[in-house]
Amino acid sequence: MLDVCLPGTGGTVPRIDRFLACCYMRFEGRGLLIDCGEGTQLAVKKAGFSLGKIELILLTHFHADHCSGLPGLLLSMGNEGRTEPLLICGPKGVDEIVKCLTVIAQELPFRIRTRVLGDFDTAEQAGFSVTAFELRHSCPCLGYDVRIRRGGKFDVEKAQKNGVPQRLWSKLQRGERLEGFGPEHVLGEARRGIHVTYATDTRPVGIISTMAADADLLVCEGMFERDKADRARESSHCTMEEAARLARDAGCAKLWLTHYSPALPDPTVCFAEAEAVFPAAELGYDGICETIRFEEM
Amino acid sequence: MLDVCLPGTGGTVPRIDRFLACCYMRFEGRGLLIDCGEGTQLAVKKAGFSLGKIELILLTHFHADHCSGLPGLLLSMGNEGRTEPLLICGPKGVDEIVKCLTVIAQELPFRIRTRVLGDFDTAEQAGFSVTAFELRHSCPCLGYDVRIRRGGKFDVEKAQKNGVPQRLWSKLQRGERLEGFGPEHVLGEARRGIHVTYATDTRPVGIISTMAADADLLVCEGMFERDKADRARESSHCTMEEAARLARDAGCAKLWLTHYSPALPDPTVCFAEAEAVFPAAELGYDGICETIRFEEM
What we know:
The structure is a homodimer.
Chain A: E1 2-8, E2 22-27, E3 30-34, H1 40-46, E4 54-58, H2 64-67, H3 70-79, E5 86-90, H4 94-101, E6 112-116, E7 122-125, E8 128-134, E9 142-150, H5 156-161, H6 169-173, E10 191-199, H7 206-211, E11 217-221, H8 229-234, H9 240-250, E12 255-258, H10 271-275, E13 281-283, E14 288-292
């Protein structure tokens, strides 16, 4: 099972009553964080998650509201005693940005590795399989498709048919390769895993629906109300209605809206615009959290 | 009169219930900000002050808890429509630090000027007369002595004795120089102004008392309780008691303690240690504010 949480749901500038948009996912006790604006370290703690467990940080782009909390987060992770290396991925330039921001977070007790991701590049870390995809914003910006893969069930008949000695069964099931045998000799077909797609900041481009096809959850920015569609276009963002259309086109199970304009203190006032298009839409709020389980089978 | 406020009073890492240490001063509607850690833009707004009015930012040093909020603050100032240049002063390296941090705050609608201050260097901006002085921390770090200067009273006898035509009196009083006359020909001796001294992060060095001699207010870090004097020494900080001794030695009118350890959620538990040494000590808290007036004379 995968815990998904939005510790913050605000766009552009933080508000006293709303942290900046980010996403924390936890799988088997290990964490993935998407974006880290000013205050994200507090938002994650307030939501009840651990900074120390983060093993992968994905930055969507390099506007301050998505990455200015990085030095503080890294220092706090260091204060908590982290020594394991940390992987930070993002669009082209992520290495320089991390280098620049960490001039005020020197002497960290752990190593940072950075990795540039391009369109459809993948990263595997801590059980998370991530595919980056290009969004359309005022600067290069990536969406992230996150999957938890799930192998097939143990298949006794298949193991016997393949002549696998019984003493190897449990090791092969755990993924080891021994004496010329591998998991493929004892496991049935891979089962459906868990699938979450994250998209901020962006215009409503079709690739979001393509990536989120069949997702358990699409987290998508819905920064503006319908009345401000012009403003959304000018600033390369989405209205809630546009986000809902993306979810409908994807056929995903659920949509969480996020990254609200600071000029929209109460997003409930225009939620009906999204719900009318996609009834499984929900308004994200700081601390919204859900556990997504593997299908029973 | 000068408004002095501590929008935040925390050290090292932000807490949900405490912003990071900073100081906002307002004189004749214009603002000075000392330090800008993660969340300072929110802390200043919550304390009821304007980001747009800041004309001078003083950075004490370049640990993240004192400067990581800079990109977000600058962007918010830009969003509020600022176009006037902004002066940022700090220890050696301030130019590179500001350049690095603003890689995520590009396209600001105003120009940033930076200025390195050394020991006893002064800066004059927006009515604030600032003198930097070196503190003793784990990295180069500056305290700031802030004064609001006050000219002499208009002296009719002196003006007549100097033969100043009456039509020039009010202009000379406002500081203009005309027809060979200046303010010195119509004003009495300069009167006592307003004097505030700010010192974080530091060991309790004597220069703090020297600078704060006769100050209306000393704002000084008191990060630890007496029991943690070793920890204070190791990390180059002060206990509350040490800060109180500095205030007593200075003979200043008042002391505000600030920059509390995140491990000290309730600083009242050890305040008696400071008060016993310096009865005019006060525990700073987020939003503490005072208006310091010119003496009647």
